[in-house]
Write a structure and sequence with these properties.
Jelly Rolls, 4-stranded antiparallel sheet, about 35% helix, about 25% strand
Length: about 170
């Protein structure tokens, strides 16, 4: 798994010591949108759906498989879960609990620092992609209210401005 790639054998052992194996039946939720973030999940086997709830029901954001990392933001912030993550079939994951991970981080664990750095890299790449997408959308001529998306030109400009502030 890319998240663990930079760890030495000893560092890997430090992370393995806090990891908890969890099994989910088909349709089981690893966590639900709005739940308190309790740690990071690494998918060992099975397929996982990432679902966002909207006024008109559930929307599939992504389908992920072995090697995927989920809930990484909970190791960085204390925000509520932004989506529901559900096992599509039987799935096995490793859970890195927030409390134990932060204890490792606070102790100066190189393993925890390397994982935090890897998460920061992923988040930075996501932000760069989002900036590019928002810039592309805000540069397109649209009516004051785009009938297909419900987006307002001013909303796009405000989102782009906000994304620029956070990307420096």
């Amino acid at each position: 798994m890319a998240l663990l790639r930079a760890l030495s054998a000893a560092e890997f052992d430090a992370i393995a010591a806090i990891a908890r194996r969890r099994e989910f039946a088909s349709g089981g939720d690893l966590f639900r949108e709005g739940d308190v973030g309790d740690g990071l999940y690494l998918v060992v086997s099975g397929d996982i759906n990432v679902i966002k709830h909207g006024p008109d029901g559930e929307h599939l954001l992504a389908k992920l498989g072995p090697g995927a990392v989920l809930g990484e933001m909970s190791l960085i912030t204390s925000e509520a879960r932004s989506a529901t993550v559900r096992a599509l079939g039987e799935a096995v994951v490793l859970h890195l609990p927030l409390t134990e991970f932060r204890a490792l981080l606070d102790s100066g664990s190189t393993a925890a620092l390397k994982i935090t750095y890897a998460i920061a890299e992923v988040l930075a790449r996501r932000l760069a992609v989002m900036n590019s997408l928002v810039l592309g959308l805000s540069g397109k001529p649209v009516s004051p209210i785009d009938k297909t998306t419900g987006l307002k030109t001013q909303d796009l400009k405000e989102l782009h401005r906000t994304m620029q502030v956070w990307s420096f």
